[in-house]
């Protein structure tokens, strides 16, 4: 079915809904690389005007990837909540934008199960940055394991103590460094240099030891392949949150070596362990615009819409954490700071609108046309937008993954500027061991020494 829109003397024609949505996407290098981007600003604007007139019900009725060809499409349609959708079923994409701008937080929570990723992506394409921030700030998604994240007025931090050789002493030092800055309430999450089962066991026991000795109300995660983590659970090793990178198409997920039944198996196994103390949200997913294109599994669909489809995969398993590593894949997909900033706001908006606890790795690679000032801008905008959590890396420079992210100091900055608190259980722990005052502010002195005093065995 072709879509048409007249602008001045010219009639623009878009062959079908995937073409229309791709042309309506703000320009980015990944869609250019795929050959699906608008060829001019005029074509892009005509596509946005045209997309605004498309009914949400039509988007639901016209899957971008056929139902019989893709299990992510089947998941989206088979789990769609028709009752939640009924409240917005009469709206066009343009009407939906107006609805969202004035909706109360309770309304957004109520309709979330009825919002498909294609609807979320479509409306984001016709929104300004300030629209994305305003709506995402109202969409609160709260999850629980050993603490509670996503509450209004809070911003959690994943403490990321990666080491190029998985050295336990180096990782422990980075963990203590991050804790001394009040980071780690989202998760203490290690990207291992090795994917071996032996390395996984060492790191899982290290995390469990630190968390138990210091009695930290947080959770650990080693970001290895989920099948390796399933084996670790079968062996009785201390797994809090199984992790997996996911994408928005069946073929892209296959390129990661994962299927929906494998995710379900990990979800059920982790919940059966009952390691959470305040809740049972147990999975951790990461995503990123461009992954489906990298795997030649994009079906001619723009990368931002496919990213939103990954959130539908995540949503099905009620995860504790999801984050988009927004600038990690490289300039082939998000060329410069402007594209990274826009993509970060889109991803955060779409995830929160769909009811996913979305965090953002505010990051870039060294060959992108971006710098730390761009990341400061995106970090500040996401803080205003109510982002669930960000990443904390020593010095903002991940020496194992070789990319630039945000530091423990950056977390202090955004919390102070916007008055954001930590997860309440974690903040109470920091005060109890003498690292912060009653308002969550770091106390003067050597925080590392206080941590070692709390658990002197870690100094060994």
Question: Would you give an account of this structure?
Answer:
- This protein has 460 residues and is an alpha/beta fold.
- It folds into two domains: 3-138, Orthogonal Bundle (Annexin V, domain 1); 143-450, Alpha-Beta Barrel (TIM Barrel).
- It has helices at 17-24, 29-34, 41-52, 56-61, 71-78, 82-85, 93-102, 105-111, 117-125, 129-138, 168-180, 197-214, 226-234, 250-255, 260-273, 291-294, 303-315, 337-353, 372-384, 408-418, 424-432, 447-454; strands at 3-7, 10-14, 143-144, 148-149, 156-159, 187-190, 220-222, 243-245, 284-287, 321-325, 358-361, 389-392, 397-398, 403-404.
- The strands form five sheets. The chain has a four-stranded parallel β-sheet with strand order 7-6-5-12. A four-stranded parallel β-sheet has the order 8-9-10-11, covered by helices on one side.
- A hairpin with a 4-residue loop joins strand 13 (397-398) and strand 14.
- Helix 1 (17-24) packs across helix 3.
- The N and C termini lie far apart (68 Å).
Keywords for this entry:
4-stranded parallel beta sheet; alpha/beta; 2 domains; Annexin V, domain 1; 460 residues; TIM Barrel; 22 helices
Q: Judging from the principal axes of the Cα atoms, what is the shape?
A: globular
Q: How many structural domains does the protein architecture include?
A: 2
Helical percentage = 40-55%
- Number of helical segments? 22
The CATH class label of the largest domain is Alpha Beta
Name the beta content range. 5-15%
Query: Uncertain spans, ≥5 residues at pLDDT below 50?
Result: none
| Average pLDDT for all residues | 96
How many runs of DSSP E, i.e. beta strands?
14
CATH topology of the largest domain: TIM Barrel
Secondary structure class reads alpha/beta
Radius of gyration (Å): 22 Å
For the biggest β-sheet, the strand order reads 7-6-5-12
| Assigned CATH superfamily of the largest domain | Aldolase class I
- CATH architecture call of the largest domain: Alpha-Beta Barrel
What separation lies between the terminal Cα atoms? 68 Å
* Most strands sheet: 4 strands, parallel
């Amino acid at each position: 079915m072709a879509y048409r829109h007249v602008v001045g003397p010219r009639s623009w024609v878009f062959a079908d809904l995937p073409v229309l949505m791709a042309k309506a996407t703000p320009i980015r290098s990944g869609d250019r690389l795929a050959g699906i981007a608008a060829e001019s600003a005029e074509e892009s604007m005509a596509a946005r005007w045209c997309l605004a007139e498309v009914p949400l019900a039509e988007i639901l009725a016209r899957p971008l990837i056929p139902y019989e060809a893709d299990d992510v499409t089947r998941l989206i349609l088979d789990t769609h909540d028709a009752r939640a959708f009924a409240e917005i079923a009469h709206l066009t994409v343009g009407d939906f934008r107006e609805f969202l701008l004035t909706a109360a937080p309770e309304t957004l929570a109520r309709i979330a199960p009825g919002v498909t990723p294609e609807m979320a992506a479509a409306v984001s394409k016709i929104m300004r940055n300030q629209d994305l921030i305003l709506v995402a700030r109202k969409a609160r998604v709260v999850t629980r394991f050993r603490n509670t994240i996503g509450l209004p007025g809070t911003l959690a931090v994943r403490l990321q103590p990666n080491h190029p050789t998985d050295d336990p002493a180096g990782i422990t030092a980075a963990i203590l460094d991050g804790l001394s800055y009040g980071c780690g309430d989202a998760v203490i999450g290690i990207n291992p240099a090795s994917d071996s089962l032996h390395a996984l066991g060492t790191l899982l026991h290290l995390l469990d030891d630190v968390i138990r000795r210091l009695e930290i109300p947080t959770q650990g995660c080693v970001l290895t392949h989920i099948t390796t983590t399933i084996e670790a659970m079968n062996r009785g090793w201390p797994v809090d949150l199984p992790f997996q990178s996911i994408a928005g198409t069946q073929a892209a997920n296959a390129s990661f070596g994962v299927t929906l039944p494998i995710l379900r198996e990990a979800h059920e196994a982790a919940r059966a362990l009952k390691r959470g103390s305040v809740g049972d949200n147990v999975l951790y997913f990461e995503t990123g615009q461009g992954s489906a294109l990298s795997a030649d599994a994009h079906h001619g669909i723009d990368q931002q819409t496919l990213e939103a489809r990954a959130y539908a995969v995540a949503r099905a398993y009620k995860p504790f954490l999801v984050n988009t590593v927004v600038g990690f894949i490289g300039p082939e997909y998000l060329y410069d700071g402007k594209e990274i900033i826009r993509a970060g706001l889109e991803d955060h908006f779409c995830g929160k609108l769909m009811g996913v606890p979305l965090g953002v790795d505010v990051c870039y690679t060294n060959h992108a046309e971006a710098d730390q000032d761009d990341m400061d801008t995106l970090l500040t905008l996401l803080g205003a937008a109510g982002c669930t959590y960000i990443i904390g890396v020593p010095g903002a420079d991940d020496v194992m993954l070789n990319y630039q992210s945000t530091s423990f100091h950056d977390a202090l900055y955004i919390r102070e500027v916007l008055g954001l608190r930590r997860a309440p259980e974690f903040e109470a722990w920091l005060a109890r061991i003498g690292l912060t005052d009653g308002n969550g502010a770091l106390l003067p002195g050597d925080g590392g020494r206080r941590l070692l005093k709390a658990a002197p065995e870690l100094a060994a």
